[in-house]
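User: For my dataset I need records formatted as: sequence, then structure tokens, nothing else. Please produce one.
Assistant:
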Amino acid sequence: MFIVQLSQFLILLWKLSSVFVIPLIMLGYVMLMNRYDGSFTFQDLDQGKNIHKWMVFAIYLIYLLCWNRSNKRVISALKKLEY
């Protein structure tokens, strides 16, 4: 019983990860850019040059592509936990 609920919860988290990854990508991008330019903040990303916005968007599209490619395999692996 617990395994079935856990499996369903993990499937829900997997599906929602396509939305919840956006703030993580933005945070990671700001942290990475802050290493090279010590004063880079989220405000710089939000109001800065469009290249930063396009980079975040491109990273998100790459994540969606990987998510879409592996979706069937992940769902089937998580459903195998139920049995």
